[in-house]
Amino acid sequence: MTRSSQIIAGNWKMNLTLSQGREFVATLKSYLEKGSVSRRVLLAPNFTLLAELAGLCAGSGIMLAAQNCAPQESGAFTGETSVAMLKDAGASHVLVGHSERRQIFGEDDSLLCAKLGAVARAGLVPILCVGETLEQRREGRALEIVISQLQADLVEFTEGELIVAYEPVWAIGTGQTATPADASDMHAGIREFLLERFAFGREIPILYGGSAKPDNAAELLAQPEINGLLVGGASLRPETFWQIITA
Ligand code: PGA
Fold it and tell me: Distances from the Cα of 190 to the Cαs of 43, 60, 227, in angstroms?
């Protein structure tokens, strides 16, 4: 498995308890032990599961991401979780700017830029999520919106590992997936931006997210600039998640 292998990431959101998470990882590990997979596997469980799952995943190749973090390093921020704490718990990656954070919790680009900086300074890998709404797509502004999010959220980012996830808001949790052609066009646009912005732009994986499932995974993963998938609903059961990993 190389750094350029495709990445299949499961975003559990606010689902699965500790015992369900343990069971999931045990099953996934049993699948991984049987077959050889060329893709890299990552799980983003809730904070409360991270430390325990890190122990269970050690040596299995399964990487762990946190779903969110505080932009501050430490201090009087009741209810927040710092990047140092996430690293300590065993996370190697952190989701930044998932559309649910942007839309439900009102996270704007300046906050996301600060979060991304905190993740990068701690030596963890930010997974920056971007995507347009249905209205913006209908207005023909999808690419413009996505590029403006990238510009704003990455304004202070100069070096280090980074992953970008393109997640059209209208495709998340709706069962409506972007067509491989639409996703592919957007990924090409994102790649162009990354190549212009960073000398290492070619190495930044671009994941697709939004109702990815066993039925559509193979076709999406066959697109030249789709370097992996960020899976929500279909990552909650090890059987379906495994079908995607091996699609
Ligand atoms: P979904 O979620 O696969 O359930 O659409 C994807 C995501 O929000 O990351």
Answer: 24, 32, 12
